[in-house]
Amino acid sequence: MGGARGRGFRDFIKHIHPPKVANSTAGVLPTLCLGGLSFFFFLLLLVTGLLLMLFYQPGSPAVAYDSLTVIQDVVAFGWFVRSVHKWAGQAMVFTVVLHLVRVVVTGAYRPPREFNWVIGVLLLLFTVLLDFTGYLLIGDATARHALKVAHALAGEVPLAGFALQLVLFGGPPDADLAGVRVYLWHCMLLPLLVAVFSFWHFYRVRKDGGVKWPL
Amino acid sequence: MGFHVSRRGFLKGWLLLIGAVLAKGILDFMTSETQGTVPDKDIFIDTVQLAEGSVMLGQKKVVWLVRDEQGYYALDRRCTHLGCSVRWQEEQRQFICPCHNSRYDLRGNIISGPAPSRLVPVKLSRDKNGNLIADRKVVVDPGWRLTITG
Ligand code: HEM
Ligand code: FES
User: Which has more pLDDT, B147 or A134?
Assistant: First the structure.
């Protein structure tokens, strides 16, 4: 084995899990561990989200709403899993935003870390989209109207508007396909993007010289 | 020296316990039987023990059973506003909707809130084992009662 691929992998592991960490950054104070906290919430959302998928029925809002009633009232600990998923979702948005504020305040976005700043902003975008699509999955009146608004907003994008509507919602906002498409974004595509970009983000942290203090 | 537990053993014990509780919870969650939709029928066991003026939630958790001086009646648990499941609040003696705070009395009449109409009374019958069965597909008159004699 070995070769370029094997070396790439070893390189990756070494950066994610380095043998040495600067003493000044081993504590919690310089960063408040907000990035790590965000990722912890993401893992919690992954587990609880997978559990919800066992009983959630995407598509028609009425059917989706009914399946949530079942999760809430019939499934053992369903109310608990749903609550943890919901609150971890809110918490993740909160910690990602605070993480960004910390990076701005400590000037950590400056070279050589400017590329990781871009990855971080994309992660914030994906996180907000995850939170928003989750809220669309509920299928109550609020969610149905929010989906219509989002659909109309996407259509306002110059030139690409209609194509964007098709990719994001699969067609008109009140068709069942829109519910299935939002489900796909929420449970597959966006979590995948967050996972890939997170690991890239962590790798860059080490590659750019680790967390340094003072910055 | 008596019984000694090392720090590592102590932590391991706690981790095992937490792991076991989590595993049991997740297993119960995954093996819940739901019929895939909100069930139409609900079942009540041991209803003779229900005192007059008290309520009981069905095993499927979709219908409330109430007993008053005249007999038994069943109320669909769905709030008539947007369909959340109403809860019984014993201190206030009201059915309260957790979503937008609609309130109903013991009979299911609206006390307050965005709900447009009363809780829906549904058909109640007795099966051969003496259990009461509510069917949400069949709406009945609010004054209807099931009386059990003997
Ligand atoms: C990572 C994998 C994830 C999966 C598989 C997943 C799956 C699901 C499913 C099936 C639902 C519908 C059930 C429900 O509404 O309670 C849901 C709802 C929701 N999700 Fe996720 N989710 C994931 C990640 C996230 C993330 C990262 C966020 C936020 C940053 C998020 C925020 C929400 C919100 C706000 C709801 C609505 C909760 C409610 O009020 O009921 N989810 N998710
Ligand atoms: S759903 Fe019950 S008050 Fe709105």
Answer: A134
CATH class held by domain B41-139: mainly beta
**What CA–CA distances, in Å, run from A13 to A6, A9, A40, A117?**
11, 6, 19, 22
- Cα(A213)–Cα(A97) distance, rounded to whole angstroms? 21
For residue range A28-51, list pLDDT tens digits in order: 555 667 888 999 999 999 999 999
Across residues A152-156, what is the average pLDDT?
94
Domains in chain A, number: 1
Calculate the CA dihedral of residues A170, A171, A177, A183 and round it to 10 degrees. Answer: 50
pLDDT range class, residue A18, cuts 50, 70, 90: low
Q: Partners of B139 in the beta sheet?
A: B122
- A125 in a domain, yes or no? yes
Which DSSP category does A189 fall into? I
Q: Does residue A130's CB lie within 6 angstroms of at least one atom of ligand 1?
A: yes
For residue A110, what are its two tokens? 């400056």
Domain boundaries, chain B: 1-30, 41-139
In a domain? residue A5: no
Share of chain A above pLDDT 70, in %: 83
Give the residue from B29, B31, B79 with the most A CB atoms within 10 Å of its CB, the best one to mutate: B29
Torsion sign across C-alpha atoms B24, B27, B29, B31: negative
Q: Could you tell me if residue A55 is inside a domain? A: yes
Q: Decide if B130 touches A, using CB distance below 8 A.
A: no
Q: Is the pTM of this model over 0.80?
A: no
Residue A161 has pLDDT above 80, yes or no: yes
Taking CA atoms, A109 is separated from A63, A98, A119, A204, B46, in Å, by: 45, 14, 11, 12, 67
